[in-house]
Amino acid sequence: MPYIPHTNEDVATMLAAIGVTRIDDLFDEIPPALLSAELGKIPSGVSEMDVTRLMQERAERDGRWLNFIGAGAYEHHIPAAVWQIATRGEFYSAYTPYQAEASQGTLQLLYEYQSMLTSLTGMDVTNASLYDGASALAEAVLMAVRVHKSAKRVLMPATVHPVYRKVVHTIVRDQGIELIEVPYCTDCGHVIPEALRPYEGLDFAALVIPQPNFFGVLEPVDELTAWARANNMLSIAVVNPTALALLRPPGEWGADGADIAVGEGQPLGVPLASGGPYFGFMACRNQYVRQMPGRIVGRTVDRDGKPGYTLTLQAREQHIRRSKATSNICTNQGLAVTAATIYMALLGPDGLTEVAQSSHSNTLKLAQLLCALPGVKRVFSAPVFHELVVRLPAPAAAVLDALRSDGILGGLALTEDYPELGDALLVCATETKNDEDLARYAESLARILKQHPQQ
Amino acid sequence: MLIFELSKRGRRNGAQALRRTGELNAIPAAQRRSSHMLLPEVSELDAVRHYTNLSRKNFSIDTQFYPLGSCTMKYNPRACNALAMLPQFLARHPDAPAATGQGLLACMYEVQEMLKDVTGMAGVSLAPMAGAQGEFAGVAMIRAYHEARGDALRTEMLVPDAAHGTNPASAVMCGYTVKEIPTDADGNVNLAALKSAVGPQTAGLMLTNPSTLGVFERTILDMQQIVHGAGGLLYYDGANLNAILGRVKPGEMGFDVMHINLHKTFSTPHGGGGPGAGPVAAAAKLAQYLPLPQVALDAGTYRLQDERDRPQSIGRLSAHLGNTGVLLRAYIYMRLLGREGMRRVAEYSTLNANYLMSELSKCGFEIAFPTRRASHEFIVTLKGLKEQTGVMAMDFAKRLLDKGIHAPTTYFPMLVPECLLIEPTETESKQTLDQFVVAMKEILAEARTNPELVKTAPHTMPVRRLDDVKAARELDLAWRERGS
């Protein structure tokens, strides 16, 4: 019996100790009419050897690709030590650290994580993580509404990841919170402060500011942060953690920084893995820490005065406050955060800066190569981080299919979410790509475009 | 020691240094970062040793018995981890076309189908990233259902007082007010109170069955009639599905929508507090509202459905498919167990719980609901012991740590005073359970002869009891460099 250690003798002894004759007797409080479960759709169990073969076949079927898709999930090198340590049983199979004395490993690691993210974002405090970047933004919107008190509307630029906007809508809708879309400049690719003029002096809880935005473009974060402050609303930064090695962090935006910063933590040592598990991070100003959702670890002392770590401010949380909690969130993404912490420790400030710089440079290089092809153009004029939009002289979907025949995932077509951009692709080349990879993409695209009549 | 205290300016982990960082840089000077990042500057060995040593300061399933009630801390098979981390699965981008993910999507589709079977529901979405998000999705679906019928008066969600805190918190996130229903002396939801609570304002009832009190709600069929009779819907909190897996299907108990904690019943790791996965399952009348995406099988090809396929969906909960890697681990576990193995989960987790309850009762522990069968967990109350010796449930829990056993859940459910909620799970042997009984007996004796020893426990952990008041009053949430 897989993972059940009982011998027949054990079972007999245990049943006798309980005073019943069969295991079925232990279910005698359940109405008999309900005890009919037949698991007809579930196959019989297989051995570890057989399931290994099955999974290997499925993995091989999915293959390996030369990937230039980013769009919120980024391929970075992950040092070998990261997941070897993160999957040690002591991290992998531990529960939420409620018993602090028996969880100092996880707790200290989370404190180190909070310290690193606090510095990376330039904010005052960070929580121990949320589910992912999209749901972290939703929690930030809810938090801003709690802090602001009077307004239930939030300004959401169209340059925020389209799926993030959908997720936020799903999560905040039933509390009567409204998201107002702010348009972007189709030449420069970011929000221009003039677009905010219609909302001046009106009652909004927050302005969301992505950096870089979904197009990879840098937003005028100082002006936007200042505008939010001047109009009595909070600023919510949505940032890429790798980018923060090169870019001024949200804690330094405008006159005195953004109010809340969130983002997707995946680039910090978490594999792409078809979308999860990732983790969301959230940081904020000191004054809002009691409105922050999720677990928070604090440093304190034990009864002998020795430093130790514990979950703190639990009075915000659902297991204490129930219907009055700041959020229903219960778990964080502990294991992914464990990986991210080890990743940041292994790279250090210079390592992370190199990853950011190399990704930035590779993407610019790729753009040069692609835009040397007839009819391929960069869509936006403003500076980017490690992702950008190019317009193709042929149908984007067909070009992507053709690239795939050459083993290349050539980016994300924006046709559905941003039809106004035409046959546009969002492309990304991280530090994992070398010059040969970039050349291979450009050569393949050149060949494909020759076969497609110019539009 | 913190990793930052091992750090020295200018030290590099050379193996991670990039040989080429690219010469292009188009970041405007005004946008560039100039402030220092507080990331450690340590060697690879320093980092590996530091985090390996930190891991050794944890209790975990792999190192200790972990009878943490309501959390189902069963063995997490290593095969599930190894196979979910095959390089092709890890490397696949979430926005890569479905054609490049047929192997993965086949697994996801089969998880959906298997979960439909064990829950007795018509549809499943794998999108929720945790149990609480599954709850949110389920309650949002209940709201969507009532709204679609133009039934705008239903503003109230009923929640038993023994429920997990996430239940009322999730209901509030969906814009409902919460009404608590009291519990009977024998652990069932009070039917008379339920009857008088329902009405045209009732959106639904959120129920865990077996409940967090470790007993099966015997009147579930009456409760179902009361709530449905008033036009409300029934939400099933799948936290305790392990106790009835393969024996009872929530759909057949009359539930309309539910979530499943894959990190409990389907043995995906708890990871120090996540990631979990909380798929949501629904009966036919609610299936159209399930969150996106779902995996469909069209003419032999798997694909992700979107808003065009399911316009009535409550929408998306994450940027992608959900916690895919967790779902993969659950898939592998399901295939290893198969249908026979799943039935055995309920049988042996129930056997272990009832055996432990009976053995602890024999050696003098007070069982909270002594006339009831345990489900896969049960409650010991130390109210009497506290009155006699001053030793509280928390002291008892801390002393168990000294005996090399993780503490049971303490002070939950809140309505049983000085409670220990004990869930051994099916993967523990009789020997382990017997050792636990011995440890419990020893502590009971210590409480009577030397209560100070118990009250000041733990004595053998890396730290002694921590000052939580100081932690909350003098917030220290991040290490800062000296002088900064």
Would you kindly provide a written description of the structure presented here, covering whatever features stand out?
The complex is a heterodimer of chains A (455) and B (484). Chain A has helices at residues 8-18, 48-62, 80-86, 89-92, 104-121, 133-148, 162-172, 221-230, 318-321, 334-371, 396-405, 435-451, and strands spanning 66-67, 125-126, 153-157, 178-182, 206-211, 234-239, 260-264, 280-284, 297-301, 307-311, 377-378, 388-391, 408-409, 412-413, 424-427. Chain A has 455 residues and is an alpha/beta fold. In chain A, strands 2-8-7-6-5-3-4 form a seven-stranded mixed β-sheet, with helices on both faces. Chain A has a four-stranded antiparallel β-sheet with strand order 11-12-15-14, covered by helices on one side. Chain A has a two-stranded parallel sheet with strand order 1-13. The longest helix of chain A has 38 residues, at 334-371. The radius of gyration of chain A is 26 Å and the shape is globular. The model of chain A has no long low-confidence stretch (mean pLDDT 96). With 484 residues, chain B is α/β, with parallel strands linked by helices. Chain B is built from 16 helices and 13 strands. Chain B has helices spanning 44-55, 78-84, 87-91, 102-119, 131-148, 166-173, 191-197, 220-229, 262-265, 284-287, 324-362, 383-389, 393-402, 430-449, 451-455, 468-473, and strands at residues 123-125, 156-160, 177-181, 202-207, 233-238, 257-260, 280-282, 295-298, 301-304, 366-367, 378-381, 409-410, 419-422. In chain B, the strands form three sheets. Chain B has a seven-stranded mixed β-sheet, sandwiched between helices. In chain B, strands 10-11-13-12 form a four-stranded antiparallel β-sheet, with helices on one face. At the A-B interface, helix 1, helix 2, helix 3, helix 4 and helix 5 of A face helix 1, helix 2, helix 3, helix 4 and helix 5 of B.
List keywords for this structure.
heterodimer; A: 455 residues; alpha/beta; Aspartate Aminotransferase, domain 1; Aspartate Aminotransferase, domain 2; 3 domains; four-stranded antiparallel sheet; 12 helices; B: alpha/beta; 2 domains; seven-stranded mixed sheet
